[in-house]
Amino acid sequence: MTEQFVTFGDNKLSVADIVDIASRKKTVRLSDSDSFGKKIQAGADFLDELLVDDGVIYGVTTGYGDSCTEPVALSLVNELPIHLSRFHGCGLGKHFDQQTTRAILATRLCSLSKGYSGVSYALLERLVLMLNEDVLPLIPEEGSVGASGDLTPLSYIARALIGEADVLFQGEFMPSAEAFGKLDVKPYKLRPKEALALMNGTAAMTAVACLNYIRAEYLTRLSSKVTSISCYALGGNPEHFDERLFDVKPHSGQQKVAEWIRGDLGVIEEKRNSNRLQDRYSIRCAPHIIGSLKDALPWLKETIENELNSSNDNPIIDPESRRVLHGGHFYGGHIAMAMDTLKTQVANLADLQDRQMALLMDQKVNNGLPANLSGAKADRKSVNHGFKAVQIGCSAWTAEALKLTMPASVFSRSTECHNQDKVSMGTIAARDCARVLELTEQVVISSLLAACQGAQLRAQLNQEQPPLAISKMAEDVGRDFNFLEEDRALEKELRFWLDEVEGKRWSLYSSR
Ligand SMILES: N[C@@H](Cc1ccc(O)cc1)C(=O)O
Known about the structure:
Blueprint: E1 5-8, H1 15-22, E2 27-30, H2 34-53, H3 80-87, E3 92-95, H4 98-112, H5 121-133, E4 136-137, E5 140-142, H6 151-161, E6 166-169, E7 172-175, H7 176-182, H8 194-199, H9 203-233, H10 243-247, H11 252-265, H12 281-284, H13 286-308, E8 316-318, E9 323-325, H14 333-361, H15 388-403, H16 426-462, H17 468-480, H18 491-502
Parallel strand pairs: 1-2
Antiparallel strand pairs: 3-5, 4-6, 6-7, 8-9
Helix pairs in contact: 1-4, 1-9, 3-6, 4-5, 4-9, 9-11, 9-13, 9-14, 9-16, 11-13, 13-14, 14-15, 14-16, 15-16, 16-17, 16-18
Bound molecules: tyrosine.
């Protein structure tokens, strides 16, 4: 039986771990190994010693960022973290949803558990409590440049800990102090450096990146499936996915997508001269389009997981070498690059499906199917419009997705008195990517419904059974989507199918 919790401390966490915590499939716990407890304690002790011995630690006895030249008297050291959490409480925009908020909490906990932030075991325990009891700070999405860490979004976690921020708890919004009260614990008292350690990293963007990655991975499969169904519906040429053809272009992800589509379309009889030797690119080049994303997935995952399992903080407190290491590990350049890349690849899937939709709708190119794939009977044809408006919707959603592909990482602004004079904008890239995914899922799901209807119409026209994998998928879709014969308002049904994608209704191809 697989474990129902994710353990923080000794092991590396994966993207899937964060997603499981975010969706409450798994709870969390700290490693009970001796070495982990000792490591965390050593960091906190080392910081205490430094405070006594040296008297100067950046962010503990100094102001923050460009204010690092401003000494803070020992008598004020305990107030400093509270101030940090307060003055960054200026985020705006929508709040992150519950899933993302859990992912952010877990991602920060992962970094702090590495043991190089000088935080106490008690802080980690409190974060565990918040995750397991689902005490969720309301974190505004906007206001991070993603290079002094996600300071502003993460400040809401710090302020929730001390009892000052609003949280969602047991379905109600309330001050965090009240939520903690219901759990019989007092607000947390931050130790010196702890607010900085909580805030000075990439947890918001990395959490969003984890959630994005899983959605994108699923979309490569779903888009491949829709391509197979569209190809059949259009009377396309299955030879475009020939194994030998793909042997000579050795991108493994592209080969895999071709293999999936080939498998869906079934055995091909030798058809050297079909009526159109070469289908249009949105069918013929689908493995190349979906495959470029598929080929990028391994390095995207590696990049996201490296960031997830990093000590993205400053300064790094290393009890082993007994050094305080000043650097810029709060800089989210890798996530910015990964998310800027991912969003362009995902938007290309929206575009691909929108083009396939265009082929399916248009009698000039759809090889004998009714206009707009209308399933209306003879004398009802004139009043019915099939998927016409759904296609128009797809074009709008695709345009909106494509518009968001402008890279965020090139919009660095010099800020904070030019201390932060080059920043990553990784959080914006990750949020853009999430929105592109949302829009692309809308396009893909609409294309799926249309393609299934197209496949049914093709089978009727040719008086045949579609290939097995295609009829199976079409049948499954048909269980919850009636053949579109008479016009009906489809919004509710489209929303239903979006939920099905979120819940990963189909397992889609056993080979990875
Ligand atoms: N990220 C900065 C710290 C900082 C914190 C808060 C600020 O408002 C500004 C800067 C550093 O580690 O150097």
